[in-house]
Design goal:
Two copies of one chain form a homodimer.
Chain A lengths: L12 H20 L3 E2 L5 E3 H8 L9 E3 L5 E4 L4 H12 L6 E10 L11 E10 L4 H17 L6 E6 H10 L7 H9 L3 H10 L4 H11 L2 E2 L9 H16 L5 E4 L9 E9 L8 E9 L10 E8 H10 L9 E7 L5 H13 L4 E3 L6 H10 L2 E7 L1 H5 L2 E6 L5 E5 L3 H6 L1
Helix pairs in contact in A: 1-4, 4-9
Chain lengths: ~425, ~425
């Protein structure tokens, strides 16, 4: 039996309905923030992702040559495609530009809980503005989105990559080796970061200072300890966030976010219930467009791991109830089946979601099928009732039945 | 500058909004018919598509080996994945099962008008029932979907592969070579079909009969000329379709639909405005599940070419107007920007789609941006008005302005 490929999933009707429901909430929230949807191809020139993330990304890519010998790759994320799209098609549009996207991404890695080879991301980019309000707007939207899904337990942590970058440059880490150090610090691998920096000639006291900076974590009051421009900047971001009602922020100067294209504010959200794979959202301000052949343009964006956040909601006990259909139409006898077809067509045209018995089942079996498709009503079409232009309407939850003129069916069912 | 790969597209906000609008209509129609959405992976074991369509399909597939040396392929269509999903996960569910899906498919072929390497299909499968009503239900849904998009000029043609299969078998075409003949007949390549059948020893008079059968085209009255079981069956399908209000059917026994897994009724819809690439929908009844390791189960399904049908709508002059946003909030002076942030947050929480000036623009420029994002209202936040708890609400289409208490903004804007 052929199965779906390892690390990918089939979504059956109940699961899919649930996913569309939550996707709809994210979509609605993005709309209230004035963000508009865009869509890019499932695969791109592999170079795009190498430019964004470095050649190491190839290890995790589904990359291959097409029949025209082009190196293409299934997208592992959607920020690079969105910025490529901006450079190609939107660079002359009025700024700032607010876009969001939702879709499949692909990474070849070992599947585990909340980690798939085909996974779904919801993301947004605010392109062409570099103000504290811009960063606050994007964080506020991420916050509103997580909230719109009803997730209760999560932490939103905000940092500023500039503080740490400045500090390690001042301490003598060469510019082209900063990324190595930041990666260790991002994962709090102090045991590895210390000898690395020592090799670069960084003094022990400076290393201690750097470590202590990455441990600067707390409520917004810790910002008082953050010096210079970055501190001023974050204080303004936080001011706007508070005005927009974003609560329970944590400041964490240890948020580095692995990738070295971030330029300033960085943020993450975590759902502790998820254990090791607890990050549900990450983002920050960056520039990428110049890498793809455009002018340098400042942007702020984020992505939400849709699969993980659904997992977190589930762990909190949230249950989604599938809606089912409005009506199931069945015939008492063979001679009224054409009339049943007419009736179901009329219901559908009126906006009622209606199924109809297609297999000529006897009433008991047909009613059982009506239950299994979660119909709220059964419409029972019988010859005798039809003579008076009526059918029997059965409430599937109570079992109550009454005669209803055919023309009144839609209003009775939709009320 | 990196471009999106040949034959793929970026969808910018206006285009994307239009596509989601029409997708929503298809989705709604499928819902009224009691079909439920499913989703399968973007790629599958390549074997799945070879089993369905024969090894020739490999020429058109985006097929490659993953890092685990598995032969995988980007899906060229979604019927095979849907039936694989059924075999793997749904084979014990109550029948019939009604599912639909919407998404990207991939074919490596020369891009041309209405033909892309990444294209979008909307499809549905009704699994586990083999009655005339089943076929009618599926055709009626395709008809309702096309109608829901507002397409005016199109032809819906219904045939029955069984009539032609029986005829060519009776004439002496060996069973294992029927597909070759049917492919020629499907494309009306009579000059090639004749020598092919002559080689198989088919008599000239029988060949003439076969050709004339494929030319049996017309209104439902031509069914009187269709003999045997297939004729009876199609008459019943048409009877149900008429009861469901499906008009202007054409019967066409030349509809063969290339693939040899169809077992009975086949149908197609064409939009003549599209020229050579005019087919917008195709389907029929088939069995596939046994190929994928399941029991043999009869199904009826169809797919709509979403890109092509949108092209047809456009050619008919249908124009979609993007909706824009409800409100754009701007500050008269620097000191009220935090209050503006509060106000925009309040609007969004009330369900208003609202953008806010993030760049500290002067009023004239900010109003210009409000126009460019198609805001219906501008909310002008000034210190003096705020003292009285009010802001200026400007109707962007008329330019009329009035003072509105902050608390009344959502109801004034959403009314």
């Amino acid at each position: 039996m052929i199965q779906c490929p390892r690390g990918t999933r089939d979504f059956l009707p109940d699961e899919m309905e649930k996913r569309r429901f939550y996707e709809g909430r994210l979509r609605h929230t993005a709309g209230t923030f004035g963000f508009r949807e865009v869509e890019t191809p499932i695969f791109e020139d592999a170079e795009l992702f190498i430019l964004r993330s470095g050649p190491n990304v190839l290890k995790e890519l589904y990359a291959f040559k097409d029949k025209g010998d082009r190196e293409i790759a299934l997208r592992p994320e959607m920020t690079a495609p969105a910025i490529r799209m901006f450079v190609n098609n939107m660079s002359n549009d009025p700024k700032p530009i607010k876009v969001f996207y939702f879709g499949q991404c692909f990474r070849y890695e070992r599947p585990q809980s909340g980690r798939y080879r085909e996974f779904f991301q919801f993301g947004a980019e605010l392109i062409g503005s570099a103000t504290p309000e811009t960063d606050a707007e994007v964080i506020a939207m991420a916050y509103a989105m997580i909230g719109s899904l009803g997730l209760r337990e999560y932490k939103l942590r905000i940092g500023h990559i500039g503080v740490l970058r400045q500090k390690i440059a001042d301490a003598g880490v060469p510019r082209d080796r900063a990324a190595e150090v930041l990666q260790k610090l991002d994962k709090k691998l102090y045991d590895e970061a210390r000898p690395l920096m020592e090799d670069m000639g960084v003094a022990g006291a400076d290393i201690d200072d750097i470590f202590s900076l990455t441990e600067t974590v707390g409520g917004t009051e810790v910002l008082d300890r953050v010096p210079g421009e970055a501190g001023d900047y974050l204080r303004r971001v936080v001011g706007f966030l508070e005005a927009m009602g974003v609560r329970d922020l944590e400041i964490d100067l240890g948020v580095v976010r692995g990738l070295d294209y971030y330029t300033g504010m960085v943020f993450e959200a975590e759902a502790p219930s998820l254990g090791a794979e607890k990050q549900i959202c990450g983002g920050g301000s960056y520039t990428l467009s110049e890498l793809f052949g455009g002018e340098k343009v400042f942007s702020t964006g984020f992505a939400i791991g849709f699969d993980r956040i659904l997992l977190a909601i589930e762990k909190e006990g949230q249950v989604y109830e599938p809606r089912g259909i409005d009506a199931y139409v069945l015939s008492v006898s063979e001679d009224v089946r054409l009339r049943a077809a007419e009736i179901v067509a009329g219901l559908r045209a009126a906006g009622v979601s209606a199924d109809v018995d297609l297999m000529g089942r006897k009433m008991g079996k047909a009613l059982k099928h009506a239950s299994s498709v979660r119909a709220r009503y059964a419409v029972i079409v019988g010859a005798k009732e039809l003579e008076e232009g009526a059918v029997t309407l059965r409430d599937m939850s109570t079992g109550e039945q009454c005669l209803v003129p055919v023309g009144e069916l839609p209003s009775r069912i939709l009320c």
